[in-house]
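Entry type: protein chain
Record version: 2
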Amino acid sequence: MTEGDITKDFKDLSKKRENLVFMARAAESAERYSDMCQIMKLLVEWKEGSDPQPLDIEERNLLSVAYKNVIGTRRASHRCLSVEDYKGNTLIGEYKKLIEEELNNICEEILGLLTNTLVPGVVKALKAKESDAKLNEALVFYLKMTGDYYRYLAEIIHSNADFKSQAKKTYSDALKIAEEHLLPTHPIRLGLALNFSVCHYEILHDQTAACDLAKRAFDAAIAKLDSIDEGSYKDSTLIMQLLRDNLTLWTSPENMKKDDDEEEPQADAE
């Protein structure tokens, strides 16, 4: 059976922007993440006049949740089929290729939304306003997402070295802006440091850079612990714990003896 297209099945869905937000929330509650992606794609592409409308904080979080879940199931499936027991099996090899195609298509879709609409939209707005805290936060959020999806491609599709370099460049660009405009305790800045450090460790195979970045982000946040906003305290402290957990794992004597190929996936942020 094939999945339907909710954007075509519901006639009035795209008539109003608020319909899309409402149904995205409903799809999330129902754990219909493929539907949620279709809805959020329409929302990103929504135009009033000639310009796409920017997403607010809730909407960009809905976008992140939608694509994170559909890509997460493919990453988990591919990981399950990559264990030693299945190596060399022709049928499993074909099955993995199917999953890789699905993962590639999902990543291409969200990367298209990010690089063609969301990031340029924020950059354009920043040029008009010069400096704006909310816009810089949004830019870091979208650049982090862009780095994440290049990292997922690099994780699965090893034939294209460009995915690695794109992930590193985008994360680096995001980190530069985050360190200039976001507090060390900001959950987006912490999540970026966490995911970039995982990229250094798992994708770029640079343990030193991974540990340096994770430690620097953790230490900077600890020094400003009193400045954590009450609304983001839980998210910030959770990511700080993940940074510390990864540091402990990466620097353990047992881990130093293992091959990179034997490593379990490290914790990353939403």
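Comment: Residues 90-129 form the longest helix (40 residues).
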